[in-house]
Design a protein that fits this description.
Length: 661
């Protein structure tokens, strides 16, 4: 048989199975296109001309890796649906005399055809859309528009190599499945059903335990040091719990419905419940996957939209003043010289400083052994990470001068804030020295920015510099050396434009070199571009990953509907022959689809609700403290996703109905 024969037969097979192959090919094209666009942008050196562009390219490169891994696994997953539908057809070829090597050649040309269509369509579509996507990215970071097309040959080559290898591996797996199966196994493969699963109570209980632990961690974890690791652990627990409960819990619920005779022996419920029960092992895993993907999409989009929309809140939290200067424990003459340099530069630039503050502080970490008692951190002690606290101490003289207050503390007394609230204890012990806490009265927390976070931070106002030096000495004796020592901070606002502020800051830092002391500084106007490009890059990546995850969710739902339709077709034909009307069939279908495909959406909504507190705290670590904005973004994301989910449900239910009726 000639090569043209195999090519024609491969093309004919794809056309004949278009109901399953067309969505698969479209998914392949979409995956290739998204990967190619992101890779082209990450390799586009023009982004380096944008402030923070190098960081954005790094984010996009990370997105390419995530998309490569996810699409690789997902294409293997969807391929399993295709090969299951083809087993009967392949077995028939084998029985009619076609050898497995001939079947392998047909599968080879099928794979080559799909790969050529996917790579050509994906790279071509990526080239056509890349400019629009690039302009969107420039608009998001408010950069100057750059015209002209940019085609990355390197990106196209990497895309072809990666997805070409992926298609070859998929082909090898498919051919191996055919090779190890007998003709009768292949012939029965597409018709294999699931035995009624047993109720696995251990799995169900494990699911409840894992889900409960994940929810508990999401709600109670507040320590900034534990948040990031705790988030990933909670995610793993919730994923495991979701799969266990969908697999074991759904079976238990369906068997409970079956035992309720008044419910079960109604026509629409009888067919739906019994049909789902016999295939629940396969369905449950797919539904759990839909739930996890849906949750991932909503978390990703709501978080990145919040960060981008709340950029002004982020900058206000991150930068307490327009310009900030920090150095070590300098003497008064150096401090006066710093002040004079700032005054001279501002006078030359025609700028005035506002809301200035100057103070010395000492920041260190300690372990809260018991409430209000802080001791040196011992990494070997069990659970130490959750007890670590940050202490930021200043003197009352600096506090009074910066805040316009009139505190009058004696030696051994202190005013303490925890986060934004006054400390409620009667005393605070730092390294064995106990301070009697004084009510703050009208006093408020001084301007610290959010460098230290809020939870797990003690802000302490001491009586004088001698008390602070005693604290530094104890820290040196107990820990070997002070983490940072006493620091001097001088910060102020300016009345000029952002460009003028950056010019003034640059000149100030140049002249500070005369002092021969290390001085660190930052200007909010100069850092604005970095933060804006960072958040725009995260949102941009979130949109792309969200699109990929949504595409995966849609395809899983579609293939499950198609698979369910083909499995149910014979059953419904039998039901019609014994007198079941089309109206009753339609009612049964509606009941089955509603139960199956809206359960993941409801479960993902519960996941989002419990994850909200932890994600809000994670965003606070990134200086995004506007919880109300995050709540609106989360609600909006869920609403849009639910509407899209309903649209997919309505479209796929029509496909299901066409197959079975």
């Amino acid at each position: 048989m000639s090569i043209l024969f195999y090519m024609r037969l491969a093309a004919q097979n794809i056309r004949k199975n278009s109901r399953t192959y067309v969505p698969y090919i479209l998914t392949c094209i979409g995956s290739v296109m998204v990967f190619n666009i992101l890779l082209s942008l990450s390799l586009n050196t023009d982004l380096d001309d944008i402030y923070g562009g190098s960081n954005m390219r790094m984010i996009l490169c990370l997105g390419c890796i995530i998309i490569a891994v996810f699409t690789g696994l997902f294409l293997f997953y969807t391929n399993s649906f295709l090969i299951k539908r083809r087993k009967t057809e392949i077995g028939l070829f084998n029985i009619l005399g076609m050898e497995k090597k001939h079947i392998g050649r047909i599968m080879f040309f099928e794979t080559v055809t799909i790969a050529m269509i996917s790579l050509t369509g994906g790279i071509g579509g990526g080239f056509l859309l890349s400019k629009g996507v690039y302009l969107l990215l420039l608009r998001m970071v408010r950069a100057e528009v750059q015209w002209g097309f940019h085609f990355s040959g390197n990106a196209a080559a990497v895309t072809v190599i990666f997805y070409g290898c992926l298609f070859l591996v998929i082909l090898a797996v498919n051919m191996a499945r055919v090779h190890v199966s007998s003709p009768m196994e292949l012939l029965r493969g597409g018709l294999e059903g699931e035995r009624e699963p047993k109720t696995r109570w251990i799995t169900a209980v494990a699911g409840i335990v894992f889900l409960g632990m994940g929810y508990y961690m999401a709600v109670v974890t507040k320590n900034p040091i534990s948040l990031i690791t705790g988030f990933f652990v909670a995610v793993i627990f919730v994923i495991i719990g979701t799969y266990c409960l969908f697999i074991a819990g759904s079976t238990a619920i369906l068997k409970f419905m079956k035992r309720r005779k008044t419910f079960y022996y109604k026509t629409e419920h009888f067919i739906a419940v019994s049909g789902m029960l016999y295939r629940m092992k396969q369905n449950a895993a797919g539904l759990a996957g839909i739930c996890v993907l849906s949750t991932s999409v909503m978390v990703m989009l709501s978080s990145t939209v919040s960060l981008y929309s709340g950029i002004n809140d982020v900058l206000e939290n991150r930068f307490v003043r327009d310009i900030s200067l920090k150095t070590g424990d300098i003497d008064d003459s150096v401090r006066e010289r710093m002040d004079q340099i700032v005054a001279d530069v501002l006078q030359e630039k025609g700028l005035c400083q506002e809301n200035a503050f100057r103070y010395k502080d000492f920041v260190f970490s300690a372990s809260e052994e018991t409430p209000g008692v802080l001791v040196p951190v011992d990494p070997k002690r069990s659970g130490e990470l959750n007890r670590v606290r940050t202490v930021c101490a200043i003197t009352q003289d600096d506090y009074n001068r910066s805040m316009g207050a009139e505190l009058s503390l004696k030696s051994g007394e202190a005013v303490v804030f925890t986060g934004d609230s006054p400390y409620m204890g009667d005393s605070l012990t730092l390294y064995g020295r106990t301070y009697r806490t004084v009510p703050p009265g009208e006093a408020q927390l001084w301007d610290t920015g959010s460098s230290f976070g809020s939870y797990g931070t003690f802000y302490v106002i001491l009586a004088d510099m001698e008390e602070m030096k005693k604290l530094v000495l104890m820290d040196m004796q107990l820990n070997g050396a002070a983490e940072r020592g006493i620091q001097y901070e001088y910060a102020f606002d300016l009345d000029g434009s952002g460009e003028m502020q950056v010019q003034a800051y640059t000149e100030i830092m140049n002249r500070m070199k005369e002092l021969a002391v290390p001085i660190r500084g930052e200007a909010a106007a100069e850092e604005w571009g970095f933060y804006f490009s960072l958040h725009a890059g995260l949102l941009f990546l979130g949109i792309f990953l969200g699109a990929i995850f949504i595409m995966a969710t849609v395809l899983i739902i579609y293939y499950k509907q198609v698979t369910e339709g083909y499995d149910d077709k014979i059953r419904f034909e039998i039901m019609q022959k014994v007198g079941l009307s089309k109206a009753e069939i339609r009612s049964s279908i509606r009941s089955q689809i509603l139960m199956m495909f809206f359960l993941p959406l409801a479960a993902s909504g519960v996941h989002i609700m419990f994850a909200f507190p932890m994600i809000a705290r994670l965003l606070a670590l990134m200086n995004m403290t506007n919880v109300k904005l995050f709540a609106w973004c989360t609600a909006g994301t869920f609403g849009v996703f639910a509407a899209a989910y309903c649209a997919v449900y309505m479209m796929t239910s029509r496909v299901y109905m066409k197959i079975v009726s």
